[in-house]
Amino acid sequence: MNYQAIVDAQNVFFNSNSTKDIHFRKTVLKRLRTVLKENETFLYEAIFKDFQKSEFETYVTELALIYSEIELTLKKLNKWSAKKSISTSLANFPAKSYIMPEPLGVSLVIGAWNYPYQLSLAPVVPAIAAGCTVIIKPSEIAKHTSAAMAKLVNENFDPSFFKVIEGGVEETTELLKIKFDKIFFTGSVAVGKIIYKAAAEHLTPITLELGGKSPAIVTDSIQVKTTAKRLVWAKFLNAGQTCIAPDYVLVKDTVKEAFLNAVVEEIKSADYAVRHDNYTQIINTKNFTRLIDLIEKDKVFYGGKIDENERVIYPTLLTDIDFDHPVMQEEIFGPILPVITYQNIKEAIEAIKNLPKPLSCYAFTKNKKEREAILNEISFGGGAINDALMHITEHDLPFGGVGNSGIGNYHGKSGFDAFSHQKSILQKPFWLEPSLKYAPYSKGKLKILKWLLG
Ligand code: NAD
């Protein structure tokens, strides 16, 4: 495939100014919603082939987020894309100042496999909304969903403003040689660095949505059952293959036993054994092998059960873990939950601060002092108090990492901003032009300027 020709065509289309029309953008977003809604069964079938994800989880964690992003954008787009007046200093009287969001241009969205629809299509919503053209490069690892998106997008949209290009490392490497006006990447820290370097060659602005080890801190001022219920759901959803899943738990020693027992009860009641409805596979053999190597038999408090033929690892709790254990050296990205005990909150906070800045952090506590210490002292992308994962559903909360977990954010207005340039304009009439700033200079002029400019 001639990638340069596709990008050239998108540049021509962008320069035709068609995407500057808000009505055009809204029409494309509505068309995207219709295409997805009319083909939901096809999308469910594709994701089931990739990792046996159920219709329930696919709707709740993928399609619903895309639909609500489209709804919000359609409602707010006029406001987001309007010129914003700001105050003007006396030095420029009589003038007005405003900020005019303009689309960055031709954009490239590179998706990850774990929520293949959401991670490829949710960034497309703000890209289209901002007036960019888009090329999606979905993850080749979820090959059926990649093909499904390619089919639906390429059969329903003009490639000069919206196109899916399938492929893996080789194809992405080729694509990255081309100059884009924006690259939006979701994936691992290691590949994020490759994307950042490639973007730097063209000074292309980037958003990097990366991963890392997101902690959950469980203090002693909690409702144990509700804490366990929320954490179990957040950890084992998508079989733990979630960038913002609680990677590990730091639990106060005095509640450890009650907490672990409650977690086991919750796992049992979720009935993950009814697999096709309630639980997904591990995406491929490489990840399956990597994960089972992390399960040290002596450390298993609960679970450890696997089904090699089906590529399934059932929820597994590890205890007596310290920060030197192999499971704590990398993002787990699977249904294994290490539980580490702490004695005082300072110790827990310090331990987290010793690791790269996480994408998310979850604190379970009714204690205001502890909550504020966690929020003020630990740097992380975003998170929740007394819950996990659900912050992603709030579209007015910018979603993204910090440090190793990413650069930039999206969802709602922040997504629109990620694909926009804020053009700043000072607009003057002709009818007045004081001679103050012009030569010949004088002490009198300087005195007035000092008063005006401060
Ligand atoms: P990945 O980095 O392996 O792949 C992501 C994308 O990059 C894919 O489209 C892939 O084709 C492409 N890619 C892979 N190697 C490449 C290379 N050498 N050159 C150019 N492109 C390349 O990530 P993944 O395995 O798909 O996803 C898992 C990771 O993504 C985890 O670390 C997870 O935490 C993170 N993630 C982050 C978010 C977020 O929103 N922050 C969401 C989901 C996943």
TrEMBL record:
<dbReference type="GO" id="GO:0004029">
    <property type="term" value="F:aldehyde dehydrogenase (NAD+) activity"/>
</dbReference>
<feature type="active site">
    <location>
        <position position="243"/>
    </location>
</feature>
<dbReference type="InterPro" id="IPR012394">
    <property type="entry name" value="Aldehyde_DH_NAD(P)"/>
</dbReference>
<dbReference type="InterPro" id="IPR015590">
    <property type="entry name" value="Aldehyde_DH_dom"/>
</dbReference>
<dbReference type="InterPro" id="IPR029510">
    <property type="entry name" value="Ald_DH_CS_GLU"/>
</dbReference>
<dbReference type="InterPro" id="IPR016160">
    <property type="entry name" value="Ald_DH_CS_CYS"/>
</dbReference>
<feature type="active site">
    <location>
        <position position="209"/>
    </location>
</feature>
<dbReference type="InterPro" id="IPR016163">
    <property type="entry name" value="Ald_DH_C"/>
</dbReference>
<dbReference type="GO" id="GO:0005737">
    <property type="term" value="C:cytoplasm"/>
</dbReference>
<dbReference type="GO" id="GO:0006081">
    <property type="term" value="P:aldehyde metabolic process"/>
</dbReference>
<feature type="domain" description="Aldehyde dehydrogenase">
    <location>
        <begin position="5"/>
        <end position="425"/>
    </location>
</feature>
<dbReference type="InterPro" id="IPR016162">
    <property type="entry name" value="Ald_DH_N"/>
</dbReference>
<comment type="similarity">
    <text>Belongs to the aldehyde dehydrogenase family.</text>
</comment>
<keyword id="KW-0560">Oxidoreductase</keyword>
<dbReference type="Pfam" id="PF00171">
    <property type="entry name" value="Aldedh"/>
</dbReference>
<protein>
    <recommendedName>
        <fullName>Aldehyde dehydrogenase</fullName>
    </recommendedName>
</protein>
<keyword id="KW-0520">NAD</keyword>
<dbReference type="InterPro" id="IPR016161">
    <property type="entry name" value="Ald_DH/histidinol_DH"/>
</dbReference>
